[in-house]
Amino acid sequence: MSISNNLAAVQAEIKKAAISSGRDPSEILLVAATKTQTAETVRAAIAAGISICGENRVQELVEKQAQNAYDGASVHFIGHLQRNKVRQVVGKVNLIESVDSLALLELIEKQAASLGICQDILLEVNIGREPAKSGVLPEELDALVSAASKFPHICLRGLMAIPPIASFPGENRDFFRQMYQLFVDMKQKTYDNNTMLYLSMGMSGDFADAIAEGANMVRIGTALFGPRMNRQR
């Protein structure tokens, strides 16, 4: 199947899930997870209609930007952001989806201030409380939202989560519900630089469930590009 055909299939499923939950399909943003994809494949995806690309690795982001791979699309950073890589990401992407600590906020603020910009971010929540995963714990989110609001060069735009890997369809719906409730709760807070617009959750195997439970941004790789291949360095 071509990327165009895969994209059409994904868009149809997004539309179906949105309508089934009483929502406008145009509210759902599709982020193409382009991890391990070549610059040529990214260009083909954009030509097929992808408008947002999401990268997990800073090295790949830098390489593809040098090749003008993202021309015509927005770029999100969706992977774990190491503190020593902040300078390579801030100001280079439209949205950092994976901010999860005060220390990382401080570094993003410093770099954004040096560039004279306001960097849009999402806060990542470890909704499944998995020790090996990044993300702020749900009970610590309120404090981190409050902290983010105090940085003049950071604009908080919402929340992101990666629930545990589901072993059967629908298993993650409770995690998605919890995330939506957190999203609603945080939207009601009145902080500076805080406009809760996006709830980013759901990937190739569960994005329909995520949409049903309130996601308005989904990150999809395999359903668009097929199984990932390890890139040779």
Sheet with most strands: strand arrangement:
7-6-5-4-3-2-1-8
Structural class, by secondary structure, is alpha/beta
> Can you tell me the CATH topology?
TIM Barrel
Strand segment count: 8
Quickly count the helices: 8
The top-level CATH class is Alpha Beta
Distance, first to last CA: 27 Å
Radius of gyration, taken over Cα atoms and rounded to an integer in Å: 17 Å
Average pLDDT figure: 94
Strand content: 15-25%
Percent of residues in helices: 25-40%
Largest sheet data: 8 strands, parallel
SSE order, one letter for each helix or strand: HEHEHEEHEHEHEHEH
What is the CATH homologous superfamily assignment?
Answer: Alanine racemase
The CATH architecture designation is: Alpha-Beta Barrel
**Apparent shape:** globular
Structure description:
There is one protein chain. By secondary structure, this protein is of the alpha/beta class. An 8-stranded parallel sheet has the order 7-6-5-4-3-2-1-8. The mean pLDDT is 94.
Concise overview:
This protein is an alpha/beta fold and 233 residues long.
